Amino acid sequence: MFDGLSVPALDPAERRARLRLARTPRIGPVSFHEALAHFGAARAACHEIRTVPEAAIASEEQALAELGGRFLVFGDADYPAALAALPDAPPVLSGVGDMRLLGRPTLAIVGARDASMAGRRFAGDLAGNLGKAGFVIASGLARGIDAAAHDAALATGTVAVMAGGVDQVYPPQNARLQQAIARQGLLLSEAAMGAPPVARAFPRRNRIVSGLSAGVIVIEAAARSGSLITAQRAAEQGREVFVVPGSPLDPRYGGSNNLIRDGAILVRDVNDITSVFGRPQSFAQPPEKPVQNGDGRDTAKVVEALGAVPTPVDELVRRCQVSAATVAEILLALELEGRLERHRGNRVSLI
Question: In this structure, which topology does domain 296-350 adopt according to CATH?
Fold first, then answer.
């Protein structure tokens, strides 16, 4: 229970069907959610779509368990509400480590792989101070800024989102750090076990880094840096974007300074971030009455709560007392019917 709601456990047969559907090669995150909306359930979709066999899921699950990990499936009670609200929410995540970290307020720190010593030191200091303030630090386990942030947040909580499977060591320079995060933090990946970290997987990883987080902090991003993709996804998802400024003569800050020019929040120290979010206890939501059904009444609640004025998705979750995963499915169904419009800042309205 990570979104303030008591969410009924996903039916085991439906959960298994979602795993099969998610691991089918031609089914991506968006088509996965479209299939759920169209067929009503993954079990029904598996009768109509040729999916991977059950044996393949059992084999991967066993390999993951041998690493001390488990699957986190869209619709599970502990699936992160922040991710569930996204239209391209990962259908399944593999996790090795402390899954409880996904229930805590999170901030992402990303930046240059070939970072300067000063940049790495600043990233470490910032991550350490944010950790002491109660935040989990998310990043992408890359060299440079990512590694410095993860390392500094090991004691207080860090989540490393990987582009390849959680059993893949990448980059090789971070092998020892990756092992430490598996013991003390959390390794997380949308990719299947054994999947290599191919180029197209990194932008998909970036959307998870930003999606898990209330805000993304960028340190030393060049004009064509991959960190800018994370910042862009963060803005599209309605997250805050923070940037550490640098000299206009240093190419490592070309993209960073452009983000500040375009409206990102300038960061000098941890206070520039905590002044926006306050302390983590401000994120906590009071317990709400559990919802016992997930059928038409949930849809009616969501539709009744919507109107012509754009409403934040997380507000719908709280107001309707429906799990984030269920709200995401309902919104997708409404969108496919042409009844829903999505707006900047993860807000939606009825058409």
Answer: Arc Repressor Mutant, subunit A (1.10.10)
CATH architecture of 100-282: 3-Layer(aba) Sandwich (3.40)
- Whether residue 157 contacts residue 137, with contact meaning beta carbons closer than 8 Å, is answered with yes
pLDDT by residue, tens only, the chain of 351 residues: 334 444 457 899 999 999 999 999 999 999 999 999 999 999 999 999 999 999 999 999 999 999 999 999 999 999 999 999 999 999 999 999 999 999 999 999 999 999 999 999 999 999 999 999 999 999 999 999 999 999 999 999 999 999 999 999 999 999 999 999 999 999 999 999 999 999 999 999 999 999 999 999 999 999 988 999 999 999 999 999 999 999 999 999 999 999 999 999 999 999 999 999 876 753 433 333 333 334 578 888 888 888 877 888 878 887 888 888 788 888 888 877 778 888 876 778 888
The enclosing H or E element of 202 equals helix 201-211
Q: What is d(CA 101, CA 185) in angstroms, rounded to the nearest whole number? A: 8
Domain boundaries, the chain: 100-282, 296-350
Residue 298, helix vs strand vs coil: helix
Give me the sheet containing 186-189, strands edge to edge.
69-73, 92-97, 186-189, 158-162, 136-139, 106-111, 215-219, 240-244, 265-266
CA distance 244 to 287: 37
pTM of the model: 0.80
